[in-house]
Design goal:
The chain is of the alpha+beta class. The protein has a single domain, classed as 3-Layer(aba) Sandwich (Protein Transport Mog1p, Chain A), CATH 3.40.1000.
């Protein structure tokens, strides 16, 4: 079983398995196509290398966490770089978990401060939200704080598997500003379109 989402422009999907490199190349080509026609060839070449390396680094890190899909906006929104993205992780916490354990796990997750139930795709998810510190790495030069929203649920077709969808945004100046609020609202709207799809 897979899933479907409705994405607003300019958000794009990047699969983290087969087709990842081809999708990165398409996104880079789209970004470079927005450069002025008279942009120096050296600038275009350097931009291609830098953007490709940045995406590859982010996606390799995502794969290491078990992510299966990555989503990001590939253009400015009303002239603003929204610096937001989200990952979809498929997790198998315990292959020997008994049937009926899902309700117990959801109840424990909902007991955490700030957690609340949300229905999407006819499935109950646990939604949490917090501001977390993110250490500098290959894609962020300084330590920063980010707003994180996470949705967690069990796969209806096989409740041993869990899906965790993690959204992060930097906001404009800080993770609780108006832009961050707007991006969280947009992410919640995207998640409201979640649908489970039967495997072909």
């Amino acid at each position: 079983m897979r899933y479907g989402l409705m994405l607003p422009s300019p958000w794009q999907h990047v699969p983290l398995g087969r087709g990842r490199r081809e999708r990165i190349a398409e996104i880079v080509d789209e970004a470079l196509a927005r450069l002025p026609d008279d942009a120096p060839p050296d600038q275009v070449a350097q931009g291609r290398i830098k953007l490709t390396e940045m995406l590859e680094t982010r996606l390799r890190a995502a794969v290491e966490t078990g992510a299966v899909d990555f989503y990001l906006p590939t253009a400015l929104t009303r002239g603003v770089d929204v610096r937001s993205s989200f990952l979809v992780n498929e997790v198998l916490p315990d292959a020997s978990a008994p049937e009926g354990v899902t309700g117990q796990v959801l109840a424990r997750l909902l007991a955490d401060d700030g957690a609340k139930p949300v229905t999407a795709g006819h499935t109950v998810w646990v939604r949490t939200e917090e501001v977390v510190d993110r250490a500098a790495d290959e894609t962020v030069s300084d330590d920063v704080s980010v707003r994180k929203v996470e949705y967690t649920t069990a796969l209806p077709a096989d409740e041993r598997y869990w899906y965790v969808v993690t959204f992060t945004t930097f906001g404009h100046e800080h993770p609780r500003d108006g832009l961050a609020d707007a991006m969280v609202e947009l992410f919640d709207a995207i998640m409201s379109t979640w649908r489970w799809l039967e495997a072909a």
